[in-house]
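Appendix C reproduces, verbatim, an entry submitted by the partner laboratory led by Prof. M.T., so that reviewers can inspect both the input and the predicted structure.
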Amino acid sequence: MARKRRLVDDENTENASNQASRTWGTLKESSRIDSANALQLSAFRTLYISQPTYNPKGTGNGIVAEHTLSIETAKSMSPTDFQACYDLIKVTSSEAYKNSSVGWSSTKKKKEMKLPDLRYLLVKRANGSEDVAVVAFLSLMLTIEDNHEVVYCYEVHVSERVRGCGLGKHLMDTMETVGRSVGVEKVMLTVFLKNEAGIRFYERLGYTEDDFSPPAKRLRNGLLKRPNYVILSKALR
C-alpha cells in the first residue's frame, strides 16, 4: 500500500503538530537524503545494489530460474515495465483500496508511481529466458517523515506464480541495505489491516507498529473506530 500519514478526527485532517514537524523536517532536508536522491541511476546502482542477480530457492511449481534485479525510476523504465508494475498493484491491491476510505483510482495511482524521488527495484527472469516480464517489484523513497530520515516502502508486489521463492524478502532486504548504506534511521511502510498475510510477512522481518501510526478514535456513541491501515517500521540504526 502507498505511503500514508497519521490522521486525526476526520481522515482528511492532519495532526497539526505532525504537519509542523514534517514542514520543519523538509526545511532541514538531510544532506545525505539530498545526496542519495541526486545520484544518477548508474551511481545509485553501483553504491547500493550489491547483487544484480538472484537465484530463487524454487517456486510452487518447482521451477527454479535466475532472476535479475535492476534499479529504475518511472522515467527510466520502459512503458512495458511501468505497465507491468501498475498491473501487479491492480491485481494484488485494487480491491483492498476499493474497500477502504482511500478508494481506487487508476489515474491517481499512476501519478503517484511517477513521483520524481521514487525508485523501483525490478525483478525479471535473467537473460536467455523466454519470459522477461517483471515478476516482482518494490518502490522506495528516501525522505523525511515526521522529522525522521527514512526509506519509505511505497509498494512491494510479487506475481502469484513466483511467490514462495523468497523474492519478497530479497526485495525487502535490498531496500534495507540501501537505507543502511545511506544512513537513514528506519524503514517505514503502510499496510491495510485486512492484509493479514502481508502484516505477518512484515512482522517476520522485524517490523512493528510505528509511533506515528494513527490510533483508534472514540466516536460520540462511545464506539472505537480504527483506521483501515497501520504504519509499520523497522529501525536500521
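Strands lie at 53-54, 67-72, 119-125, 134-145, 148-158, 186-192, 208-209, 217-218, 224-225, 229-235. Additional entries are available on request from the coordinating office.
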